[in-house]
Amino acid sequence: MMNDATLRKIDLNLLLAFSVLMQERNVSRAAERLLLGQPGLSAALRRLRETLGDELFVRVGRGLQPTPRALSIAPAIEDALSGIERAIRPPAAFDPANWHGEFRVGLCDNLESSFFGPLVARLRQLAPHARLTSVAFDRRDAVRLLDEGAFDFSISVHDEPASWHVRAPLFDQASLCIYDGRHLKCATPLSLKHFATAPHVTVSLEGATSTGVDVALARLGHRRQVVATVPRFSALPTTLRAIPAIATVPEAIARCMAQLHDLTISEPPFELPADPVTMLYRRVDQADSRSVWFRRLFVDVVKEALEASGCRMGVSTDACCYEPLPLAEAV
């Protein structure tokens, strides 16, 4: 059996030289294919002979005749070189039209209401054999679920990511007030007085009634009366149509609800910070052609859905454009 020291003497160039010599049986033609001079190829062959302890090729006339040892090892060397070629060959471009499989996206319910319908419609057009699954999650579980493969990426207000994840910006999410104008007789835009004195409905998965709205309102010397709290945005439209109350929610879902349920929207009567909505995905998927295609599709759908609903925020393409780092920086 060949020892480790002997194996280390056989590099890829020697194996490639052997393979081409087996095919050409001529030093001059083999040297041309390898872009080597004849002295360089002869030196490589000499190293291989010394390492393996066999002549490997014997000159017969103007050509070379492989020895029994060369003939016996040639198939294994060809298999090894073919495997290396397959491994380093650029991956084939993703073909959505002929792909059978599942795309999975993690969406909180307000973004799901805004984007899931348009996303599945576009997917049915471009990837008719694919299935789309939306995975509900608490943003505190986003990292764990992503690592477990629960979804391809999640869309939320994510915390600082781990080194093996990528957090890419999508858009800054402003807030709007929404209410049923038939119940709550307030002119738009809402005044601070009307906002502070009206009943309010909040959305909180944990059941919390105090939000950033209350912090901003307190700075102005006001408090609001929260009369109901629901865990999901889907409960808001029926609640607002049942009672005279205001909900302050992300702009995308506010405009969606207003169109679907004939509700009134208004800018808040004071400044509220926008939330940075981002896409979180695994770094190992950064250059994968299927993953890149799906991220690009999602960003395109988000841009069109926001524009169609009247939202004015810009959408970043950082999440879908993959630019490989220079090798010196990527190591």
Automatic annotation (TrEMBL):
This protein's UniProt keywords: Activator, DNA-binding, Nodulation, Transcription, Transcription regulation
The keyword Endoplasmic reticulum appears for this protein: no
GO molecular function, one term: DNA-binding transcription factor activity
UniProt keyword Nucleus, yes or no: no
Domain HTH lysR-type: 10-67
SUPFAM superfamilies per UniProt: Periplasmic binding protein-like II, Winged helix' DNA-binding domain
Similarity comment text for this entry: Belongs to the LysR transcriptional regulatory family.
Identification of the protein by name: DNA-binding transcriptional regulator, LysR family
Species of origin: Rhizobium hainanense
